[in-house]
C-alpha cells in the first residue's frame, strides 16, 4: 500500500476527471483512490520518502527472514521462474528499491543453498545455470498511474516486470503461482468505509468527523470490523495464490493495544483535517453534510488484532510479527510539518478531491498545515510510539 498506495491531480493527467464539479461529487467516496500520479508538486513519486524511510527500518528484518526461513531450493524445484508481487505499488520509486533488495536476498539464499550441495569446482557453473529467472508483478488499483510507474522502471533490473491492476482484497493471480508477496503502506486502507457511519439513526453516525479518531466506541468498532473482514478476505485470496512455503511480508500502520488513536501524530493529523473541514463548512466554502458523509477508509490495527486474524485464518505460519516506531529514522530531529502534509496530500488527495472538489484542496491542506504547526510540540512528543506493524508470514 504496498508503497503500499491514491490520484492523478496537481499538474498530472486526470483520467478520473476529478474536477470537483457537482456530478463527480454526487456520491460519497467510500473506498480508497490511487495515490497522486505524475511527477508534479504533490505527486506520490516526489512525496513518498517518509514512507520509504519508515519501511527501510524493517528491511534488515525482512532480509533476515528470507535468509533464515525461505527455502529457495524447494521453491525453484517446482519452477525455473520465481514470481514476486508487490501489492499497492503506486508509482514508484519505493517499490523498485524494496523489490531489488528482496530479489538480491533471494538470489543470495539460492546460491547459499546450492553451495551446500555442489562441489566448489562446480559452483560457478551452478550459479550461472541454475539461478532461476524472476518475474515481478506490480499491483495497484485500476486508476493507478501505471504510466509513471513503468516509465521509471530501472533499466538494469534483473527481472521481468508486469502490471496487475485491481484491488488486492480480491484474487489477482492464478492458484499457486506466486512465491513471494510484499506490501507496504497499503493494507491499512480498508476496502470501504463502514456504511453504518452514515446512518443518522445509528450510534455509529460519524457526524463532523472524517475518521474514527476522537469518535465514539461504536465508530471505532465499525472500522475494526471492516478491517477484520478485509484482512480475512485478503489472507484467503493470498493463501490461494501463494505456493506452499511461499512468503508474505506486510508493513502497515498500527497502534499499541488500547491506545486512543488521537494520541499519535496520525490521529492528530486526522483531527486537524476534520476541524479544518468543519471550519470551512461554517464559512460556507463547503457543506457540513459533505463532512458528515465522508469517512476516510483507513484503519490501524494493533499487533494483537493482526495475530488473531492470521491465526483464525489458519493458512499461514507467523514467522515474525512486531511493532516498531516508524519515525525512528528522524533520529531526534523534529517533524517537518509542511513536508509531512505534502506527503499526506500525495496519498489522500484523490479521495478528498473527489468528494469535496479539487478547487478547495489548497485551502484545506493549508489550514491543516497551520493547525499542525500550532500543536507541533505535541506532535513531536508522541512521534516515538510504536505505530508500525511488520508481519512475515509463510504459507503452510
TrEMBL record:
<feature type="region of interest" description="Disordered">
    <location>
        <begin position="1"/>
        <end position="47"/>
    </location>
</feature>
<dbReference type="Pfam" id="PF03492">
    <property type="entry name" value="Methyltransf_7"/>
</dbReference>
<dbReference type="GO" id="GO:0032259">
    <property type="term" value="P:methylation"/>
</dbReference>
<dbReference type="GO" id="GO:0008168">
    <property type="term" value="F:methyltransferase activity"/>
</dbReference>
<keyword id="KW-0460">Magnesium</keyword>
<dbReference type="InterPro" id="IPR005299">
    <property type="entry name" value="MeTrfase_7"/>
</dbReference>
<dbReference type="InterPro" id="IPR042086">
    <property type="entry name" value="MeTrfase_capping"/>
</dbReference>
<protein>
    <recommendedName>
        <fullName>S-adenosylmethionine-dependent methyltransferase</fullName>
    </recommendedName>
</protein>
<keyword id="KW-0479">Metal-binding</keyword>
<dbReference type="InterPro" id="IPR029063">
    <property type="entry name" value="SAM-dependent_MTases_sf"/>
</dbReference>
<dbReference type="GO" id="GO:0046872">
    <property type="term" value="F:metal ion binding"/>
</dbReference>
<keyword id="KW-0489">Methyltransferase</keyword>
<keyword id="KW-0808">Transferase</keyword>
